[in-house]
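Forwarding the complex inputs:
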Amino acid sequence: MRKTEQAVERCKTMSTLQKILGGKWKLEILYYIAFHDIRRFGALRRQLGEITESSLTKQLRELEADGFLVRHDFHEVPPRVEYTLTELGRSFMDVIAYMKTWGDENLPENK
Amino acid sequence: MRKTEQAVERCKTMSTLQKILGGKWKLEILYYIAFHDIRRFGALRRQLGEITESSLTKQLRELEADGFLVRHDFHEVPPRVEYTLTELGRSFMDVIAYMKTWGDENLPENK
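Prediction (whole assembly, two chains):
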């Protein structure tokens, strides 16, 4: 067996990134909040199309728990709730932008 | 309603990236193949720890179908199957590296 086939130490950063971004919608949710200023629950849901209400709620709660988003409840009737990026979330915009540039240039669908 | 709350055109690149990377293990699988030259099914499974055999099979097949990996079957007994990056997969290494640097610097676990 080649030496390289021995298990290496698990990379904690990659493991955390995987946990944070592994959700079915998280990258796209962060992208629309970050780059298109789409903040409201209903607007995010319309933007993503096929997502269910419970799925969007779950993903937003996880992104909030992971420190990427903050939830603002304006205590209005009808309810008005908005999501904005935290400082961590804003710093992640660079990663999304880098990834999008790569995708625009390399993914077959865009060629 | 603010103007920005209108739905914008769905970004195809982000939607594709989300589909490709949304799997529970894909980032980590690509990371270990790309940066630690871990190629064999069994070695990947040991590396990822909690992943089931059927889950790893599924994720590898999807990464192959999406053009990131190529599967080499050496037709040996016992079976020897290795996965390596395609040109597209190699080009994605930059994105993984960029993301990892961001994570090392920004994720609370690493501070």
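Chain A has a mean pLDDT of 91.
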